Amino acid sequence: MKVASPRGILALLFAVNVLNYVDRQLVYALLPLIQGDLRLSDARAGALASAFMLVYMVAAPPIAWLADARGRRPWIAGGVALWSAATGAAGFARGFASLFASRAAVGVGEACYGAISPSFVAERFPEARRGRALALFSMAIPVGSALGYAGGGLAGEMLGWRHAFFLVGLPGIFLSLLCLALPDDGPRAATPAPVAGYREVWGVPTFRLVTFAGAAMTFALGGFAVWMPTFFHRVHGLSVGRAGTLFGGITVLGGLVGSLLGGWLADALRARHADADLLVSGVGLIAGMPLAAAAILAPTLPLCVAGLFAAETLLFLNMGPLNSAIVSVTRLETRSMAFAANIFVIHLLGDAASPAVIGWTSDHFGLPRALLATCAALGVGGAFCFAARAGYDADAARAAGAPA
User: Fold this and answer.
1) Cβ burial, residue 25 (10 Å; 0-12/13-18/19+)
2) Are both 94 and 175 inside the same structural domain?
3) Would you say 391 and 206 are in contact if contact means Cβ atoms under 8 Å apart?
4) pLDDT, tens digit (0-9, with 9 covering 90-100), for 368-395
5) Buried-exposed string 94-126: b where 16+ CB fall within 10 A, e elsewhere
6) What residues make up the domain containing 263?
7) What is the pTM of this model?
8) Weakest mean pLDDT among 19-33, 42-56, 262-276
């Protein structure tokens, strides 16, 4: 049986994407149990996150080129199977080295999926509906993250951390088999060699600016994800458990509302503004900046929560539109490479650096000031979005094969 309809493909890959983020966040929910059992230091526990992110970033570019050159379906299905098997294998870990290796393998598997799936989804929908489709696809980020934190912690308490990894790994094996029913786009004869392909992608001015916008946003959101629960604990006196639950709830609700609204707005404005994806994203980032700052400066917890929810809703507006913009300005033969290059840069310049930068700034100036300074990155991201509008029409025309 083939999964051929656009809605069927979106539904299947949305489910896989939810599991993608469950697998990413699961280990963080289980860390206290893992550390107690395996006697890991905080430094080694933190290295597990680094293992995933570094391998994910480095593996994405070569995998994306191979997928564009030889067909994407086997890479999607194989990637899901690999990361799911690696997640299950973590349950057998007897020490740091084996757990580190399993998280690195998860990074390879998720690189197969993360670099390929957005373009695979986008190409099934006409441009007028692409923003909403990618927004729905991106809703998996807050949903999967929340399930990973909350469900992982609950499963770990009830069943033990090893069985939690087994439990999360099994559904992925089933979903990988379903992914074999996706359409086979086959090899693309016009796919350029790796160096030429990535040079072509990076040579698109709109792509570069969109990627820098994503890096600025990821710098801020990645830093908030690590430090906002601590901010709630230190500034507003919440318990560690309540602080994490509150921030997770805000992120899920803001992510769902913002992702859906952003896709709808971009598609609604597209008839009047061809670059509606960039317009919606830029407005969301710039408008979200003062609201995030107001949340940090709020004198009471309710005002802080209200400001943070409004800010995150606006920041999540761009989840679908920025991906849609990448699709529009890159050729079919290089789109997976474009997403791989985007993944590499936004994480390298974004959330791979920001938690440490915020921590250093907090040590010297206090956490509220460190988070306030981070809000400036949101304005930078918005400025990149508006700068990208200047060349969007010409880049989109070239990508479509029309005269610029």
Assistant:
1) buried
2) yes
3) yes
4) 999 999 999 999 999 999 999 999 999 9
5) eebeebbebbbbbbbbbbbbbbbbbbbbbbbbe
6) 192-399
7) 0.79
8) 42-56
